[in-house]
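subagent[fold] <- orchestrator: predict structure for attached chain, return C-alpha coordinates only, no commentary.
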Amino acid sequence: MEAPNALPAGHALQEYRIEKVLGVGGFGLTYLALDENLHLRVAVKEYLPADIALRAPDCSIAPRSEETVEIFDWGKRRFLDESRTLASFRHPNIVRVMRFFEANGTAYMVMEFVEGAPLPDWVGVRRPLAEAQVAALAAPLLDGLEVVHKAGFMHRDIKPPNIYIRDDSSPVLLDFGAARQKSSELTALVTPGYAPFEQYHTQGKQGAWSDIYALGGVLYWMVTGNSPHEAAARIRADTMPPALQAADKSLFRPEFLAAIDWALAPDEDQRPQSVPEWREALLGAAPTPPRTQVAQPRTQVQKAPPQPTTIPATFDPTLLKRLEAELAQYLGPIAPAVVRNAAKKAATQEQLVQMLAADISASIPRAAFQRQFSEISRPVSKPPAPAASGPAIPPTALAASRFPQEVLDRATARLAEYIGALSRVVVRRAAMKARDEAELYLLIADEIEDPVRKKAFIRRAISATGKP
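subagent[fold] -> orchestrator:
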Protein backbone atom coordinates (compact mmCIF):
# COMPACT_ATOMS: atom_id res chain seq x y z
CA MET A 1 0.00 0.00 0.00
CA GLU A 2 1.30 3.45 -0.93
CA ALA A 3 0.68 6.78 0.81
CA PRO A 4 2.44 9.94 -0.42
CA ASN A 5 2.73 11.41 3.10
CA ALA A 6 3.97 8.22 4.79
CA LEU A 7 7.30 7.70 6.50
CA PRO A 8 9.72 6.04 4.06
CA ALA A 9 10.74 2.40 4.36
CA GLY A 10 13.85 2.09 6.50
CA HIS A 11 13.06 5.20 8.55
CA ALA A 12 14.16 4.81 12.20
CA LEU A 13 11.53 5.81 14.75
CA GLN A 14 13.24 5.31 18.10
CA GLU A 15 13.86 1.53 18.24
CA TYR A 16 11.40 0.83 15.42
CA ARG A 17 12.42 0.60 11.78
CA ILE A 18 9.59 1.23 9.33
CA GLU A 19 9.07 -1.53 6.71
CA LYS A 20 5.88 -0.56 4.87
CA VAL A 21 2.45 1.04 5.17
CA LEU A 22 -0.31 -1.28 6.37
CA GLY A 23 -3.25 1.10 6.31
CA VAL A 24 -4.36 4.69 5.78
CA GLY A 25 -7.25 6.36 7.62
CA GLY A 26 -8.67 9.77 8.29
CA PHE A 27 -6.78 10.10 11.58
CA GLY A 28 -3.42 8.65 10.56
CA LEU A 29 -1.36 5.85 9.08
CA THR A 30 -0.43 2.40 10.29
CA TYR A 31 2.98 0.89 9.50
CA LEU A 32 4.58 -2.51 9.73
CA ALA A 33 7.82 -2.01 11.64
CA LEU A 34 10.60 -4.04 13.21
CA ASP A 35 11.38 -3.59 16.91
CA GLU A 36 15.17 -3.80 16.64
CA ASN A 37 15.60 -4.40 20.36
CA LEU A 38 13.23 -7.37 20.55
CA HIS A 39 13.57 -8.48 16.88
CA LEU A 40 9.78 -8.46 16.76
CA ARG A 41 7.44 -7.18 14.08
CA VAL A 42 4.91 -4.65 15.33
CA ALA A 43 2.23 -2.33 13.94
CA VAL A 44 2.85 1.37 14.57
CA LYS A 45 0.00 3.86 14.24
CA GLU A 46 0.93 7.49 13.61
CA TYR A 47 -1.39 10.39 14.49
CA LEU A 48 -1.71 12.33 11.24
CA PRO A 49 -5.16 13.87 10.64
CA ALA A 50 -4.76 14.62 6.92
CA ASP A 51 -7.35 17.42 6.84
CA ILE A 52 -5.56 19.59 9.41
CA ALA A 53 -1.90 18.48 9.39
CA LEU A 54 0.93 17.75 6.98
CA ARG A 55 4.42 16.26 6.98
CA ALA A 56 7.51 18.44 6.62
CA PRO A 57 10.64 17.36 4.69
CA ASP A 58 12.31 16.34 7.96
CA CYS A 59 9.44 13.83 8.53
CA SER A 60 7.91 15.86 11.37
CA ILE A 61 4.16 16.55 11.53
CA ALA A 62 2.69 20.04 12.02
CA PRO A 63 -0.74 21.70 11.78
CA ARG A 64 -1.56 23.12 8.35
CA SER A 65 -2.28 26.60 9.72
CA GLU A 66 -2.60 28.59 12.92
CA GLU A 67 -6.35 27.98 12.81
CA THR A 68 -5.83 24.22 13.09
CA VAL A 69 -3.23 24.26 15.90
CA GLU A 70 -5.76 23.99 18.70
CA ILE A 71 -7.72 21.10 17.22
CA PHE A 72 -4.50 19.29 16.20
CA ASP A 73 -3.14 19.54 19.76
CA TRP A 74 -6.46 18.44 21.21
CA GLY A 75 -6.51 15.42 18.90
CA LYS A 76 -2.96 14.48 19.85
CA ARG A 77 -3.80 14.61 23.55
CA ARG A 78 -6.84 12.43 22.92
CA PHE A 79 -4.71 9.99 20.87
CA LEU A 80 -2.26 9.61 23.77
CA ASP A 81 -5.01 9.35 26.39
CA GLU A 82 -6.77 6.69 24.39
CA SER A 83 -3.51 4.82 23.78
CA ARG A 84 -2.96 4.75 27.53
CA THR A 85 -6.40 3.28 28.13
CA LEU A 86 -6.20 0.78 25.28
CA ALA A 87 -2.82 -0.39 26.59
CA SER A 88 -4.59 -1.43 29.79
CA PHE A 89 -6.88 -3.87 27.96
CA ARG A 90 -5.90 -7.52 28.24
CA HIS A 91 -8.12 -9.63 26.04
CA PRO A 92 -7.10 -12.27 23.48
CA ASN A 93 -9.50 -10.91 20.86
CA ILE A 94 -8.52 -7.24 21.09
CA VAL A 95 -5.29 -6.11 19.48
CA ARG A 96 -2.73 -5.43 22.22
CA VAL A 97 -1.24 -1.94 22.58
CA MET A 98 2.38 -2.37 23.71
CA ARG A 99 3.48 1.26 24.18
CA PHE A 100 2.91 4.83 23.02
CA PHE A 101 5.12 7.90 22.74
CA GLU A 102 5.57 11.34 21.17
CA ALA A 103 8.04 12.06 18.37
CA ASN A 104 8.23 14.11 15.17
CA GLY A 105 5.76 16.61 16.61
CA THR A 106 3.03 13.96 16.75
CA ALA A 107 2.16 10.77 18.64
CA TYR A 108 2.56 7.04 17.99
CA MET A 109 0.88 3.88 19.22
CA VAL A 110 2.74 0.55 19.01
CA MET A 111 0.55 -2.56 18.73
CA GLU A 112 1.08 -6.25 18.24
CA PHE A 113 1.30 -7.26 14.60
CA VAL A 114 -1.35 -9.90 14.00
CA GLU A 115 -0.27 -12.75 11.75
CA GLY A 116 -3.22 -14.08 9.81
CA ALA A 117 -5.74 -13.00 7.22
CA PRO A 118 -8.24 -10.15 7.10
CA LEU A 119 -11.80 -11.39 7.54
CA PRO A 120 -12.78 -10.77 3.87
CA ASP A 121 -9.97 -13.04 2.67
CA TRP A 122 -10.72 -15.70 5.30
CA VAL A 123 -14.42 -15.74 4.47
CA GLY A 124 -13.88 -15.64 0.73
CA VAL A 125 -12.42 -19.15 0.50
CA ARG A 126 -14.96 -20.66 2.93
CA ARG A 127 -18.33 -19.57 1.58
CA PRO A 128 -21.00 -20.60 2.17
CA LEU A 129 -20.51 -20.31 5.92
CA ALA A 130 -22.56 -22.26 8.45
CA GLU A 131 -23.97 -20.79 11.66
CA ALA A 132 -21.40 -22.58 13.83
CA GLN A 133 -18.56 -20.86 11.95
CA VAL A 134 -20.11 -17.41 12.23
CA ALA A 135 -21.01 -17.89 15.89
CA ALA A 136 -17.50 -19.15 16.72
CA LEU A 137 -16.11 -15.81 15.49
CA ALA A 138 -18.89 -13.61 16.90
CA ALA A 139 -18.66 -14.91 20.47
CA PRO A 140 -15.04 -13.91 21.22
CA LEU A 141 -15.44 -10.60 19.35
CA LEU A 142 -18.44 -9.77 21.54
CA ASP A 143 -16.45 -10.66 24.65
CA GLY A 144 -13.66 -8.31 23.61
CA LEU A 145 -16.05 -5.52 22.67
CA GLU A 146 -17.72 -5.80 26.06
CA VAL A 147 -14.34 -5.14 27.71
CA VAL A 148 -13.95 -1.98 25.63
CA HIS A 149 -17.42 -0.74 26.50
CA LYS A 150 -17.01 -1.42 30.22
CA ALA A 151 -13.93 0.83 30.13
CA GLY A 152 -16.12 3.62 28.76
CA PHE A 153 -14.85 3.42 25.19
CA MET A 154 -16.33 2.62 21.79
CA HIS A 155 -14.54 1.22 18.75
CA ARG A 156 -16.57 3.21 16.19
CA ASP A 157 -15.11 1.60 13.06
CA ILE A 158 -15.96 -2.10 13.13
CA LYS A 159 -15.97 -3.53 9.62
CA PRO A 160 -14.68 -6.70 7.92
CA PRO A 161 -11.17 -5.36 7.13
CA ASN A 162 -10.70 -4.41 10.82
CA ILE A 163 -11.14 -8.02 11.92
CA TYR A 164 -8.25 -10.43 11.43
CA ILE A 165 -8.31 -14.20 11.76
CA ARG A 166 -5.15 -15.59 13.30
CA ASP A 167 -3.55 -18.77 12.08
CA ASP A 168 -5.31 -20.66 14.93
CA SER A 169 -8.71 -19.43 13.61
CA SER A 170 -9.28 -17.02 16.52
CA PRO A 171 -10.49 -13.51 15.60
CA VAL A 172 -8.96 -10.25 16.75
CA LEU A 173 -10.46 -6.76 16.54
CA LEU A 174 -8.00 -4.23 15.08
CA ASP A 175 -7.65 -0.51 14.47
CA PHE A 176 -8.78 1.33 17.57
CA GLY A 177 -7.54 4.59 16.08
CA ALA A 178 -11.16 5.77 15.83
CA ALA A 179 -11.94 4.85 19.44
CA ARG A 180 -13.40 7.63 21.55
CA GLN A 181 -14.68 7.88 25.08
CA LYS A 182 -18.46 7.99 25.23
CA SER A 183 -18.37 11.30 27.07
CA SER A 184 -16.02 13.02 24.63
CA GLU A 185 -16.92 15.14 21.64
CA LEU A 186 -17.37 12.73 18.77
CA THR A 187 -16.14 13.58 15.31
CA ALA A 188 -17.89 12.23 12.24
CA LEU A 189 -16.53 8.87 11.12
CA VAL A 190 -18.43 6.60 8.78
CA THR A 191 -17.82 3.44 6.80
CA PRO A 192 -20.84 3.08 4.49
CA GLY A 193 -22.82 -0.03 5.29
CA TYR A 194 -21.31 -0.50 8.75
CA ALA A 195 -21.55 2.91 10.43
CA PRO A 196 -24.96 3.57 12.04
CA PHE A 197 -26.86 6.73 11.19
CA GLU A 198 -25.94 8.44 14.49
CA GLN A 199 -22.31 8.54 13.33
CA TYR A 200 -23.24 10.61 10.29
CA HIS A 201 -23.86 13.80 12.28
CA THR A 202 -22.26 15.45 15.31
CA GLN A 203 -25.49 15.41 17.34
CA GLY A 204 -26.02 11.67 16.98
CA LYS A 205 -26.52 9.70 20.20
CA GLN A 206 -23.66 7.21 20.12
CA GLY A 207 -23.02 4.37 22.51
CA ALA A 208 -22.55 0.61 22.76
CA TRP A 209 -25.52 0.23 20.39
CA SER A 210 -23.45 1.98 17.69
CA ASP A 211 -20.72 -0.67 17.78
CA ILE A 212 -23.43 -3.36 17.93
CA TYR A 213 -24.89 -1.99 14.68
CA ALA A 214 -21.48 -2.20 13.01
CA LEU A 215 -20.78 -5.75 14.19
CA GLY A 216 -24.32 -6.69 13.18
CA GLY A 217 -23.43 -5.37 9.72
CA VAL A 218 -20.36 -7.62 9.64
CA LEU A 219 -22.49 -10.66 10.53
CA TYR A 220 -25.09 -9.65 7.92
CA TRP A 221 -22.33 -9.60 5.30
CA MET A 222 -21.06 -12.99 6.49
CA VAL A 223 -24.46 -14.73 6.36
CA THR A 224 -25.86 -13.11 3.19
CA GLY A 225 -22.74 -12.39 1.13
CA ASN A 226 -23.87 -8.76 0.69
CA SER A 227 -22.81 -5.59 2.48
CA PRO A 228 -25.60 -3.80 4.38
CA HIS A 229 -27.14 -0.75 2.75
CA GLU A 230 -25.78 2.60 3.89
CA ALA A 231 -27.53 3.63 7.12
CA ALA A 232 -28.41 7.10 5.83
CA ALA A 233 -30.31 5.50 2.95
CA ARG A 234 -32.41 3.36 5.29
CA ILE A 235 -33.96 6.14 7.35
CA ARG A 236 -36.92 7.12 5.16
CA ALA A 237 -37.49 3.96 3.17
CA ASP A 238 -35.62 0.85 4.26
CA THR A 239 -35.23 -1.38 1.21
CA MET A 240 -32.49 -3.60 2.63
CA PRO A 241 -33.64 -7.26 2.73
CA PRO A 242 -33.49 -8.50 6.33
CA ALA A 243 -31.17 -11.37 7.13
CA LEU A 244 -34.23 -13.51 7.80
CA GLN A 245 -35.04 -13.29 4.09
CA ALA A 246 -31.61 -12.92 2.49
CA ALA A 247 -29.69 -15.71 4.26
CA ASP A 248 -29.85 -19.45 3.56
CA LYS A 249 -32.25 -20.87 6.17
CA SER A 250 -30.73 -24.32 5.79
CA LEU A 251 -27.50 -22.94 7.25
CA PHE A 252 -28.85 -20.54 9.91
CA ARG A 253 -31.58 -20.69 12.53
CA PRO A 254 -34.29 -18.01 12.27
CA GLU A 255 -33.45 -16.90 15.82
CA PHE A 256 -29.84 -16.22 14.85
CA LEU A 257 -30.86 -14.20 11.79
CA ALA A 258 -33.51 -12.27 13.72
CA ALA A 259 -30.87 -11.21 16.26
CA ILE A 260 -28.73 -9.82 13.41
CA ASP A 261 -31.74 -7.85 12.13
CA TRP A 262 -32.32 -6.53 15.65
CA ALA A 263 -28.77 -5.15 15.79
CA LEU A 264 -29.27 -3.42 12.43
CA ALA A 265 -32.34 -1.40 13.37
CA PRO A 266 -31.87 2.12 11.89
CA ASP A 267 -33.26 3.72 15.09
CA GLU A 268 -30.65 3.39 17.84
CA ASP A 269 -33.35 3.17 20.54
CA GLN A 270 -34.71 -0.01 18.93
CA ARG A 271 -31.40 -1.92 18.96
CA PRO A 272 -29.83 -3.97 21.75
CA GLN A 273 -28.39 -1.44 24.16
CA SER A 274 -25.51 -3.57 25.43
CA VAL A 275 -23.32 -6.48 24.36
CA PRO A 276 -24.77 -8.89 26.99
CA GLU A 277 -28.31 -8.11 25.80
CA TRP A 278 -27.45 -8.86 22.19
CA ARG A 279 -25.21 -11.84 22.98
CA GLU A 280 -28.08 -13.65 24.69
CA ALA A 281 -30.37 -13.20 21.68
CA LEU A 282 -27.66 -14.11 19.19
CA LEU A 283 -25.81 -16.97 20.86
CA GLY A 284 -27.69 -18.17 23.90
CA ALA A 285 -31.01 -18.47 25.66
CA ALA A 286 -32.72 -15.21 26.47
CA PRO A 287 -36.18 -13.75 26.76
CA THR A 288 -37.66 -12.41 23.55
CA PRO A 289 -35.98 -9.03 22.88
CA PRO A 290 -38.10 -6.24 24.39
CA ARG A 291 -37.99 -4.40 21.08
CA THR A 292 -39.66 -7.18 19.12
CA GLN A 293 -40.53 -4.83 16.30
CA VAL A 294 -36.82 -4.73 15.45
CA ALA A 295 -36.56 -8.48 14.95
CA GLN A 296 -39.64 -8.13 12.71
CA PRO A 297 -38.52 -7.78 9.07
CA ARG A 298 -39.22 -4.42 7.53
CA THR A 299 -41.52 -6.07 5.02
CA GLN A 300 -44.72 -7.81 6.12
CA VAL A 301 -43.50 -11.35 5.40
CA GLN A 302 -42.87 -12.27 9.04
CA LYS A 303 -46.04 -12.31 11.16
CA ALA A 304 -44.49 -12.85 14.57
CA PRO A 305 -41.02 -12.59 16.10
CA PRO A 306 -39.12 -15.88 16.25
CA GLN A 307 -38.71 -17.59 19.57
CA PRO A 308 -35.16 -17.82 20.91
CA THR A 309 -33.31 -21.07 21.32
CA THR A 310 -33.85 -22.44 24.82
CA ILE A 311 -31.46 -24.33 27.05
CA PRO A 312 -32.66 -27.89 27.79
CA ALA A 313 -34.91 -27.85 30.85
CA THR A 314 -32.71 -30.30 32.72
CA PHE A 315 -29.80 -27.85 32.80
CA ASP A 316 -29.56 -24.75 34.95
CA PRO A 317 -28.46 -21.73 32.80
CA THR A 318 -26.23 -20.58 35.65
CA LEU A 319 -24.45 -23.94 35.62
CA LEU A 320 -23.88 -23.70 31.86
CA LYS A 321 -22.40 -20.21 32.22
CA ARG A 322 -20.03 -21.45 34.94
CA LEU A 323 -19.02 -24.41 32.79
CA GLU A 324 -18.32 -22.10 29.84
CA ALA A 325 -16.18 -19.77 31.96
CA GLU A 326 -14.13 -22.63 33.45
CA LEU A 327 -13.72 -24.52 30.18
CA ALA A 328 -12.58 -21.34 28.41
CA GLN A 329 -9.34 -21.54 30.42
CA TYR A 330 -8.45 -24.70 28.51
CA LEU A 331 -10.24 -24.39 25.15
CA GLY A 332 -10.29 -20.64 24.62
CA PRO A 333 -13.10 -18.86 22.72
CA ILE A 334 -14.76 -22.03 21.44
CA ALA A 335 -15.78 -23.05 24.99
CA PRO A 336 -19.36 -21.68 24.77
CA ALA A 337 -19.96 -23.59 21.54
CA VAL A 338 -18.54 -26.79 23.07
CA VAL A 339 -20.82 -26.46 26.11
CA ARG A 340 -23.91 -25.79 23.98
CA ASN A 341 -23.09 -28.76 21.75
CA ALA A 342 -22.60 -31.09 24.71
CA ALA A 343 -25.79 -29.85 26.38
CA LYS A 344 -27.77 -31.06 23.35
CA LYS A 345 -26.41 -34.60 23.76
CA ALA A 346 -25.98 -35.16 27.50
CA ALA A 347 -28.79 -37.03 29.28
CA THR A 348 -27.86 -35.78 32.76
CA GLN A 349 -25.89 -32.98 34.32
CA GLU A 350 -23.30 -35.45 35.54
CA GLN A 351 -22.86 -36.78 32.02
CA LEU A 352 -22.55 -33.22 30.73
CA VAL A 353 -19.66 -32.52 33.09
CA GLN A 354 -17.97 -35.79 32.11
CA MET A 355 -18.29 -34.96 28.40
CA LEU A 356 -16.76 -31.52 28.90
CA ALA A 357 -13.98 -32.82 31.13
CA ALA A 358 -12.97 -35.17 28.31
CA ASP A 359 -12.01 -32.12 26.26
CA ILE A 360 -9.33 -31.11 28.79
CA SER A 361 -6.27 -33.05 27.69
CA ALA A 362 -4.11 -32.58 30.82
CA SER A 363 -5.05 -35.03 33.59
CA ILE A 364 -4.59 -32.71 36.61
CA PRO A 365 -6.73 -29.82 35.29
CA ARG A 366 -9.28 -32.36 34.05
CA ALA A 367 -9.58 -33.90 37.50
CA ALA A 368 -9.84 -30.45 39.10
CA PHE A 369 -12.61 -29.52 36.67
CA GLN A 370 -14.54 -32.67 37.56
CA ARG A 371 -14.10 -32.11 41.30
CA GLN A 372 -15.21 -28.50 41.04
CA PHE A 373 -18.52 -29.44 39.44
CA SER A 374 -19.09 -32.81 41.13
CA GLU A 375 -21.37 -31.41 43.85
CA ILE A 376 -23.60 -29.37 41.56
CA SER A 377 -23.73 -31.79 38.61
CA ARG A 378 -26.50 -34.00 39.99
CA PRO A 379 -28.92 -35.73 37.65
CA VAL A 380 -32.27 -33.98 37.50
CA SER A 381 -34.56 -36.22 35.48
CA LYS A 382 -32.54 -39.31 34.60
CA PRO A 383 -30.13 -41.59 36.46
CA PRO A 384 -26.41 -41.00 35.84
CA ALA A 385 -24.66 -43.00 33.19
CA PRO A 386 -22.68 -45.93 34.63
CA ALA A 387 -19.08 -45.08 35.31
CA ALA A 388 -16.49 -46.68 33.10
CA SER A 389 -14.24 -49.21 34.79
CA GLY A 390 -10.49 -49.06 34.74
CA PRO A 391 -8.08 -46.12 34.88
CA ALA A 392 -8.97 -42.93 33.06
CA ILE A 393 -7.13 -42.44 29.79
CA PRO A 394 -6.55 -38.87 28.57
CA PRO A 395 -8.79 -38.28 25.52
CA THR A 396 -5.94 -36.95 23.40
CA ALA A 397 -3.86 -40.06 24.06
CA LEU A 398 -6.83 -42.34 23.36
CA ALA A 399 -7.59 -40.64 20.07
CA ALA A 400 -3.94 -40.72 19.02
CA SER A 401 -3.66 -44.41 19.89
CA ARG A 402 -6.41 -45.20 17.38
CA PHE A 403 -5.29 -42.93 14.54
CA PRO A 404 -2.03 -41.32 13.43
CA GLN A 405 -1.87 -37.62 14.23
CA GLU A 406 -1.79 -36.70 10.54
CA VAL A 407 -5.17 -38.44 10.05
CA LEU A 408 -6.68 -36.45 12.95
CA ASP A 409 -5.17 -33.20 11.64
CA ARG A 410 -6.52 -33.85 8.15
CA ALA A 411 -10.02 -34.61 9.44
CA THR A 412 -9.95 -31.49 11.64
CA ALA A 413 -8.95 -29.27 8.73
CA ARG A 414 -11.67 -30.68 6.47
CA LEU A 415 -14.41 -30.36 9.08
CA ALA A 416 -13.26 -26.82 9.98
CA GLU A 417 -14.46 -25.70 6.55
CA TYR A 418 -17.99 -26.42 7.75
CA ILE A 419 -18.07 -25.74 11.51
CA GLY A 420 -14.92 -23.71 12.25
CA ALA A 421 -12.79 -24.02 15.39
CA LEU A 422 -15.16 -26.51 17.01
CA SER A 423 -13.88 -29.18 14.60
CA ARG A 424 -10.87 -29.95 16.81
CA VAL A 425 -13.07 -31.09 19.70
CA VAL A 426 -15.53 -32.96 17.47
CA VAL A 427 -12.79 -34.95 15.74
CA ARG A 428 -11.14 -35.86 19.02
CA ARG A 429 -14.40 -37.20 20.43
CA ALA A 430 -15.22 -39.15 17.29
CA ALA A 431 -11.74 -40.68 17.22
CA MET A 432 -12.46 -42.35 20.57
CA LYS A 433 -15.37 -44.26 19.00
CA ALA A 434 -14.43 -44.86 15.36
CA ARG A 435 -12.94 -48.18 14.30
CA ASP A 436 -11.36 -46.87 11.11
CA GLU A 437 -10.86 -43.66 9.18
CA ALA A 438 -14.04 -44.05 7.13
CA GLU A 439 -16.14 -44.42 10.27
CA LEU A 440 -14.37 -41.40 11.75
CA TYR A 441 -15.62 -39.25 8.87
CA LEU A 442 -19.12 -40.66 9.14
CA LEU A 443 -19.24 -39.70 12.81
CA ILE A 444 -17.94 -36.16 12.41
CA ALA A 445 -20.23 -35.56 9.44
CA ASP A 446 -23.16 -35.56 11.89
CA GLU A 447 -22.12 -32.03 12.91
CA ILE A 448 -22.95 -30.72 9.40
CA GLU A 449 -26.63 -29.80 9.48
CA ASP A 450 -27.27 -29.24 5.78
CA PRO A 451 -28.00 -32.72 4.22
CA VAL A 452 -26.58 -31.82 0.80
CA ARG A 453 -23.31 -30.48 2.21
CA LYS A 454 -23.13 -33.39 4.62
CA LYS A 455 -23.33 -35.93 1.77
CA ALA A 456 -20.74 -34.02 -0.24
CA PHE A 457 -18.41 -34.00 2.76
CA ILE A 458 -18.75 -37.75 3.27
CA ARG A 459 -18.21 -38.56 -0.42
CA ARG A 460 -15.14 -36.34 -0.60
CA ALA A 461 -13.66 -37.57 2.66
CA ILE A 462 -14.19 -41.30 2.15
CA SER A 463 -12.98 -41.06 -1.42
CA ALA A 464 -9.76 -39.49 -0.14
CA THR A 465 -9.26 -42.27 2.39
CA GLY A 466 -9.58 -44.94 -0.27
CA LYS A 467 -12.23 -46.81 1.77
CA PRO A 468 -15.34 -48.30 0.13
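orchestrator: received. Logging for downstream: Residues 131-150 form the longest helix (20 residues). The chain has a mean pLDDT of 80.
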